[in-house]
């Protein structure tokens, strides 16, 4: 286990170096450094320090090695990017499944609220019928009925609020699903 952890740390360290080198090669300082190296390389034969053929041989070898390593570093970066994209796609699929489940739950809640609303309306009708049938009931019964009607009205208002809120959530879910 300790060896695996050490190995992973070394790999991550090497990947960081590869990322930094890949970034540096695509930067302005890299262009300047390469330009200076080329100018110096081509100036050496003119100054008589080394023959032109030898300079070209060394420069070609160095550039070939650089190209090989750069292609490896770039491929490593592409592979890591591909892995990250796959992870993101899996996360998106999970989120879409969650949204679908939430949508189903909201639909069920909406149906429950509609049933409750119907039940409340039935109760309210029953209370009104009882009031019509019992015109000579005493004041305390009437007060109770007023309180019951008030509670029913409050419940209807709360249910309407919940319905509106559910509709808002449903529209937001639809927007997320469309995005």
How would you describe what is shown here?
The chain is an all-alpha fold and 179 residues long. 93% of the residues lie in helices and 0% in strands. The protein has helices at residues 2-25, 28-47, 52-133, 139-178. The chain is rod-shaped. 1% of the residues are buried.
Overall pLDDT metric? 83
Strand content: under 5%
Q: What gyration radius follows from the Cα positions, in whole Å?
A: 38 Å
Q: What class would the helix/strand composition place it in?
A: mainly alpha
* Biggest β-sheet description: none
The number of strands is: 0
Taken from the alpha-carbon principal axes, the silhouette is rod-shaped
Number of distinct helices: 4
Order of helices and strands: HHHH
Q: Spans with pLDDT under 50 lasting ≥5 residues?
A: none
The termini sit apart by: 43 Å
Helix content: over 70%
Secondary structure topology:
Layout: H1 2-25, H2 28-47, H3 52-133, H4 139-178
Helix pairs in contact: 1-3, 2-3, 3-4
